[in-house]
Amino acid sequence: MVEYKYSLDLKNYVWDITSISVILLVVSLTIIFNTVVSEITFYTTLDFTLKIIVPLVLTVIIHELVHIASAIMLGYKAKIGYGRVKFTPVFYVRIKDGIMKKHYITITLTPLIAFSTITLILALITPNTLAKEILSTMFIMNTAGSSGDIVLTLSAIKIDKKALIEDYGTSIVSNKPIPKPYNRTVGLILKIITIMLLILIAVQLKIEIGKIP
After folding, report:
1. φ and ψ at residue 78, rounded to 5 degrees
2. Residue/partner pairs of 119-124 with CB below 8 Å, 24 or more apart
3. Looking at the 3D structure of the chain, how many domains does it have?
4. Distances (CA, A) of 28 to 80, 136, 141, 166, 182
5. Distance from the Cα of residue 9 to its chain's centroid
6. Which domain holds residue 39?
7. Is residue 137 part of a domain?
8. What is the pLDDT of residue 207?
9. 133-168 residue pLDDT tens
10. Strands 164-167 and 78-85
11. Three-class SS of residue 108?
């Protein structure tokens, strides 16, 4: 029987995950507004529902289904679990048996790589404006929402190649030591970049509001 005595808890990386999410949000918004649409408009409650609520629900469902599909393709039995990281609800793929390191990295990153790429391509080629905006929102949400997956992957990359990993959504456990995803300096840099981006966004919003007659 494998003994999983090493762990890494995402609750210790809440601000790092938030920082990465903000950075990915800005990057994905920049990509969308420079390649797909110039703006995403909200004139009515229906607009908000179609362009925010519907994409959010679809993104969460498809993101987890992609995790499950990649796990099944690699030969694992998987199901969706639920947990919380502080105030944030977390859905995750629960695999009962230990996952090989290389398989864990593949399963964890597939939604970010495959789902984001597909939604971006579809947003670029579809002629329908509403569909473009919905797909663009899904791309943004999936990309920005993959920060936890990125943190877990950065740790998994450093684990011994013979390690077995189990994912509990808010934490991972392994039969081999789990290194930290990065050092404190990187964490500090992430927070500084996030603060700078938020300041730039606030200034830009102030400028845009000032232009309104």
Report:
1. -130, 155
2. 120/31, 120/32, 120/35, 120/36, 123/32, 123/36, 123/37, 124/35, 124/36
3. 1
4. 26, 9, 9, 30, 23
5. 17
6. 6-183
7. yes
8. 60
9. 999 999 999 999 999 999 999 999 999 999 999 988
10. unpaired
11. helix
